[in-house]
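Why do we bother with holo predictions? Because pocket geometry can differ from the apo form. Keep that in mind while you read this record for adenosine-5'-diphosphate.
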Amino acid sequence: MPTEKYSFKTEVNQLLDLMIHSLYSHKEVGIREIISNASDAIDKARYESLTNPEIVVPKEGWKIRIHADKDAGTLMISDNGIGMTREEAIEALGTIAHSGTKEFLAFLKEKNMENSPDLIGQFGVGFYSAFMIANKVTVLSRKANSKDDTAVKWESTADGSFVVDHFVKDSSGTDIILHLHDDEKKYLDDWQIRNVISKYSDYIEYPIVMDVEREEDSALEKGKKVKILKEEQINSGKAIWLRDRSDIKENEYNEFYKHISHDFSDPLKAIHYHAEGTTDFISLLFIPAHAPLDIFYKEFRLGPALYVKKVQIMDHCEELIPPYLRFIRGVVDSSDLPLNVSREILQNNRQVTIMKNNITRKVLDALAEMKMNDSENFLAFSREFGRVLKEGIHYDHARKEVIADLLLFSSTTSGEAVTRTLDDYIAGMKDGQSDIYYMTGTSIREMADSPYLEALREKEYEVLFLTDDIDDLIFGGFEYKGKKFKSILKGDITLDRTGEKRKSAEQFDKLIDFMKAILSDDVKEVRLSGRLKDSPCCLVGDEGDLDPRMEKMLKSMGQEVPVQKKILEINPEHPIFTSMKELFEGDKSIPLLEEYSRLLLDQALLLAGSRPKDPARFSRYLSQLMVQGARRKLPAEHGDTT
Ligand code: ADP
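The structure, written out:
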């Protein structure tokens, strides 16, 4: 095979550019990423060796070897894992495969932070981070099942291209040779290497070894010391989840979390336990501090990594966690499942169902504990994942109250702060109040000023403000501790105050019938309102109607939404209706009555966040009224001044 030169894909060049100009002070994460890849490559080989006789466990055992060559200025990280063919190397090391890297680039773009290279190190962006410390990287790789010693040599100086060549390698696996920048040569020192490994890679479960120079008594000459090279393991090497909880330091949990999640911040919480009984497994799960950018995408890969007796089977096992807990990252290691477990087996396995139930309960318990004892972190959790968690109310019937108990709301009581729990709400319910009132909308500030709240406010009933797109779907019809959720935008709100008013309602009957006839194309009913106090009117839906927020969302997604006529509610206490009634009783044919009816509908549309039906007509009416109002005022003012 000839030497071939390839150009990197554009996004790789962008990334390399950032990498090279990175001012990030912890450049050693480049070493962490290479070791992490070596460990993944061994995972793959080990898993394949279970079923593929062509792949055998190396005589020396699965191992990662570090070799520093001070004369050449190179640091080599070798593994005896799965290796790459020539084609695989071209594909894997010429494009961006790493999910964390894609996310990183999207993050920079979204936040407009292309000029903040210091973020790179925190993200951990895979193979290419090697170029933070090396000006040239050479990769020598031989596929684990290759019949001969044919291998591939891949090399790049990050100048926009890489070269691949034929190579002869006597064992399978991959050597990554970092030709270090002059000012990064410190990573050739033993103690620096140890430092980096114990800081970032101690959790790697395969031995990371290095030849270390030691002085020993000479066998030949008594009393004389000789220098010899001895292989030494420099990581502790035990899978972190198998270690005793009390021996694990917080930063070890944090580093392990970053390794498996590609997240750049520490997690909010680690949940580590051994489940025994009907099924035996160990879980090490994490609640992240930040939602990944793709958490609402269909392609989002959920579920912890599944291990069976310490062998990684898959990196995301979605059968182990309900989608409403998809933010959870971690590892589950089962002692009971067969090593050759397949997706089909997982989907219908009783053990797996038990595990999933157990994990769900543990995570919800951990959240409840966080809510009780660590309100600051719980608030952060709610901000990031409340929207995901609440999906569980809809999907997990048996646990819906437990989940609802973990939600924080803003309301007429808390204002914009998102701090109210449903128990707080119930504790604050007034005598005679039987329902939990909520309102949906995009902005809490706008909702807080809404006329829909007037009568409830007067009675000091708390109203929850819900701003998530799915809220009406989740809470419409939901009951918490026997209290029904009721949208104040829909259905009839019958507070006591309407009782007494209803007595005088009949006097408006005829006017209402008149308005109904005029507006019949646009509204399905005109009725007296129980929810208004100061405003003249508002539009509401029927109990079973789509929520206005939902309606808008579906429309924006291009879905056809059946036209739903709304109900126009009028406030008989507002003076406009006394005036209209007088006009109506005098001469019901005057055009003003029709104009006013339409103007009232337009106002109600505006208050509901919609456009007036005919904005030009609305503006014309309004100007006319303003002119009339001004005329009435002018002569009097003239009189005052003259
Ligand atoms: P990721 O490891 O997240 O996929 P990287 O950028 O770190 O992304 O690596 C890209 C790809 O290169 C890997 O997916 C893998 O296919 C290949 N690769 C990297 N290092 C090794 C290695 N030591 N052995 C085998 N393949 C490797």
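The first helix runs from residue 10 to 20.
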